[in-house]
Amino acid sequence: MIHVNRLEGRVALVTGAGSGIGHAICTRLAEEGARIVALDRDAAAANATATAIGDDAYAVAADVANVEDMQRAVAEVVERFGRLDIAVNAAGVGASSLLVDTQMETWQRVMDVCLTGVFVSSQAQARQMIAQGGPAVIVNIASTNAQQPGEGLAAYCAAKAGVDMLSRVAALELAPYGIRVAAVGPGLTDTPMVARLLANPSARDAFLDNIPAGRPARPEDIAAAVAFLASDDAAYVTGQTLYVDGGASMMRYPSLASRRAGAAA
Ligand SMILES: NC(=O)c1ccc[n+]([C@@H]2O[C@H](COP(=O)([O-])OP(=O)(O)OC[C@H]3O[C@@H](n4cnc5c(N)ncnc54)[C@H](O)[C@@H]3O)[C@@H](O)[C@H]2O)c1
Fold first, then answer.
1. Nearest-atom index, ligand 1, CA of 65
2. SS3 141
3. How far is it, in rounded angstroms, from Cα 91 to Cα 18?
4. Which of 3.30.420.40, 3.40.50.300, 3.30.70.140, 3.40.50.720 would CATH assign to domain 11-244?
């Protein structure tokens, strides 16, 4: 149970809110007093998150990579709650394929959601925050893969490294308006995105061997870091990526032997 009410009365828009980390972020920010707009391209999932929170939450169906969708979503937040204080960009997709095998379509899908989606979302959010004036904060969800290369993850790693840099540029440009921008870099986190990996004993062990904390993150671990960055406790924190990974980024990113099959000769 949460013991603080750091976000009382603030309005928070969370993308990717229908599952995993985004869902946990909505729950945590609401527990700390924020009113929540749960955004996901999966309308039913967004609704489920908003319903679980209760009267202080509502759902929006939108695609983060679509400019019109995100402009409409931010306009709806303002219509409903009058302002936007906190934006968390957590929507993301994964894909695993070696560089030499990656189809253009796969590369584009990951880039569209994971990187372009953060650009499109944060542009719409920042315009509203500038227009309304006063302090506000954007938190983008990156990954340890922003700095740790992983085999089979060219598109994902490149997109997340882009999120890290995009967050820093945004922090620089928006600081004069009192808007902070930070990122959280989760390590392996137990969500539907990595369910198949965690269900594979050899892949799971390869990851666990490289997580000093000895377990994957829970979505709530990531949400706690986001709540800190969104709160006034982080009033002097901007342009930083906070890695929440049980120490994994001090270690080597696992080599998954199965991906190497046929590579050696
Ligand atoms: N799970 C991990 O191990 C892990 C590790 C590091 C970073 N991350 C990042 O955390 C974020 C959340 O991932 P998760 O593990 O909770 O995944 P998840 O698959 O459980 O949830 C992702 C959510 O994003 C939504 N989404 C996907 N594309 C969208 C779009 N175009 N527009 C709107 N919504 C969209 C999905 O419908 C889903 O509800 C992602 O950015 C992911 O890259 C996850």
1. 31
2. strand
3. 9
4. 3.40.50.720
Confidence of residue 227 (pLDDT cuts 50, 70, 90): very high
**What DSSP state is assigned to residue 218?**
P
Active-site positions read 156
Edge-first strand order for the sheet with 136-141 is 57-61, 35-40, 11-15, 86-89, 136-141, 179-186, 241-244
Q: Where are the domains of the chain?
A: 11-244
Atom from ligand 1 closest to the CA of residue 24? 16
4 pLDDT tier (thresholds 50, 70, 90) = confident
Q: Is 189 helix (H, G, I), strand (E, B) or coil?
A: strand
Do residues 40 and 93 touch, judged by C-beta distance below 8 A?
no
pLDDT at 12: 98
Ligand 1, CB cutoff 6 Å, lining residues: 15-16, 18-22, 40-42, 45, 63-65, 90-93, 113-114, 117, 141, 143, 186, 188-189, 191-194
Number of H helices, E strands in the chain: 10, 7
Q: What is the pLDDT of residue 2?
A: 52
User: What is the model's pLDDT at position 264?
Assistant: 37
- Cβ atoms of 49 and 20 within 8 Å: the answer is no
- pTM of whole model > 0.85? yes
How far away, in angstroms, is 262 Cα from ligand 1 center? Answer: 31
Q: Is the separation of the CB atoms in 142 and 242 below 8 Å? A: no
